Amino acid sequence: MSYAESGALYAEVVATERLSPHLVRIVLGGPEMSQYEPLLVPDEAVVLWFPKPGQERPAPTTLKDGVWAHHDPQTAPPGRNYTVRAFEPGENARMTVDFVVHPGGVAGEWAVNAQVGQELLITRPRCWYSPPEGVDWILAAADLTGLPALARIIEECEQDGPAVYAMVETVDADDLAALPATQCHARGVDASVGTGNGVAPGALADLIALKVAELSGQGTGYVWYSGEAAQSREIRKLLRKKHGWPLERVATVGYWRQDAERWNATFEKVHGEQLVKVYYEAIEHGLSSAEASELLDEEYEKAGL
Hints:
Blueprint: H1 3-6, E1 8-20, E2 23-29, E3 45-49, E4 62-64, E5 67-69, E6 79-83, E7 86-88, E8 94-100, H2 106-113, E9 119-126, E10 137-142, H3 147-156, E11 163-170, E12 189-193, H4 204-215, E13 221-228, H5 229-242, E14 250-256, H6 260-269, H7 272-275, H8 277-284, H9 289-302
Parallel strand pairs: 10-11, 10-13, 11-12, 13-14
Antiparallel strand pairs: 1-2, 1-9, 2-8, 3-6, 3-9, 4-5, 7-8
Pfam families: FAD_binding_9 (PF08021), SIP (PF04954)
InterPro entries: FAD-bd_FR_type, FNR_nucleotide-bd, Riboflavin_synthase-like_b-brl, SIP_FAD-bd, SIP_fam, SIP_rossman_dom
Protein name: Siderophore-interacting protein
């Protein structure tokens, strides 16, 4: 079945590289990679599906009730969302993905041990970064999980476009080597080392608050954040509730949760699957995905999630 029909393709590892103490780069290719259709947006992310122990490749998706997915939980492989750091189209297409490595992470441990020729399954991308026309400046911030997207935002900023300010929260200063050396007209990178990323409380929410206050007299801004989910909520509330920014000027993406075990237990206790209906009902009533997500997040917060 083709990528155009199923939205999934198999990719092979063609190269690996240790970028820094906490980042491993994997280059993916193979005969099916040329079918991939990039979104050409800096934070486009795909789901990577990994083989289960003893498998040479992850189980394929199947069609059920018009939906391509892993419908059988017994055979479904583990999957994680990852930013496409770079994509080179053509007959020998290549996709570059940077992995954060840490003990216990399914994807990170796979990446550390990845060998040329090993296979993954990739499903269609989605994205969130969308600065409105006419903004004067962009503040892009991320922890290690969002670093690949932040790197692309810096690389792809336009000389005659909005000024780009970047912030990153990392465990080790050496991880900053993953950012591009040429930074277009980006106004430098402010780094917070040793905070967030599961090792300490996050600092980006406070830093963003200070930067937004500093830039408040310099026209209209747009803030994009990618990283820990609780910090994502804090940043969005700051901009939406305190500063009254419209939703189209705020994009915060929670890639992971610091307190995932507690959150999952609470989700089950409060029957969180019922709360999720808020999202789909909002979509049915014509709201955008961003609007529906914000409503769902408000319901989560009320329920202690």
